[in-house]
Amino acid sequence: MAHGYETGRLNLPFVGISTFAKAPYQPDWDALSADVAILGAPFDAGTQWRAGARFGPRAIREASTLFSFGHSGAYDHEDDATYLDGVRIVDIGDADIIHTDTLGSHANIEAGVRAILKAGALPVILGGDHSVNIPCIDAFSDQAPVHLVQIDAHLDFVDERHGVRFGHGNPMRRAAEKPWVTGLSQLGIRNVSSTAKDGYEAARTMGSDILSVRQVRTLGVAAVLERIPAGKRYYLSVDIDGFDPSIAPGTGTPSHGGFIYYEVLELLAGLARRGSIVGIDLVEVAPDYDPSGITQILAAQLLLNTIGRIFVS
Q1: Cβ contact 129:239 at 8 Å
Q2: Which of 53, 18, 132 has its CA nearest to residue 295?
Q3: Is the dihedral of CA 36, 17, 5, 70 positive or negative?
Q4: CA–CA gap between residue 235 and residue 229 (Å, rounded)
């Protein structure tokens, strides 16, 4: 008896070019047509210790192929929902990075995010160090206001250090200064931090709600979500070091005591129901510190699950 074969290519994860989730590649930023557009921002000159996040976008893209195989959409039996079914995702490649030039590189990242917003798509930016959040937020200057939700081990609220204002310790301070950012929810902040006490005081004065991992666990997901203004437009910034390094070792500044996967997924699923997530960056994946590759798999899995929950009917 002859074997029956489905038509078309099987397209296993290890076959082909590694765009994000094997989505179509669209190099023409003026011809975007999609629900979601992926932009790489492989810049890591803002780091204060271990570099390597410039390789994050490639690693996340390759890891994401694991979740691109086999089905139309992704059925979740716990939620009885099929995620990502019919969601049009394109990968627009990377912003051009100019070595040693922070402002020039950031300007190129901002241009990419603006092109995505102009097309009416959801921008999803793969970092890169956390300084890439600065041009991402700048790109929303002519959009309706946003509330910034940050998942991170570090507050990233340094104003200026030895003249540096646009490194990976500065992005939340730069965001808080923007009139179109109405407030910040900073979740996962813990232990020895890169921001001094005056930075925490400034953050709270400028509209931040700061919770550690232990505080989030004590409150519970539902109570944490209640602290985030309802019915708003949310910009989501996920630093992979918000997770515990036991599941995300591939990052420049690991901090023990971090979140586990489902804690963050439940927070983001609740956030998607509470308002509208209108922009995402996921940063600080530095794959060379993780020979197993689980960090970038976590990043890809979280992004795809979050995108799915944003667009589920």
Answers
A1: no
A2: 53
A3: negative
A4: 13
Q: Among candidates 127, 122, 171, which has minimal Cα distance to 276?
A: 122
HEC sequence for 215-243: HHHHHCHHHHHHCCCCCCEEEEEEEHHHE
Q: Tell me which residue has tokens 């094997």.
A: 22
Where are the domains positioned within the chain?
Answer: 24-311
Per-residue model confidence (pLDDT) at position 69: 66
The CATH code that applies to domain 24-311 is: 3.40.800.10
42 CB neighbour count, 10 Å cutoff:
21
Query: Which pLDDT value is given to residue 307?
Result: 97
| Residues of the chain below pLDDT 50 | 1
> How big is the CA angle at 130 (ends 99 and 311), to the nearest 5 degrees?
120
Indicate the DSSP class of residue 18. Answer: -
Give the residue ranges of DSSP H helices in the chain. Answer: 56-64, 102-118, 133-138, 171-176, 197-205, 213-219, 221-226, 261-274, 294-311
Q: Supply the pLDDT for residue 10.
A: 85
Q: Which residues of 196-206 are buried (b: 16+ CB within 10 A; e: fewer)?
A: eeebbebbeeb
Q: Are 211 and 219 contacting, i.e. CB atoms less than 8 angstroms apart?
A: yes
Say which residues have a Cβ less than 8 Å from residue 50's Cβ, sequence separation at least 6: 252, 253, 286, 289
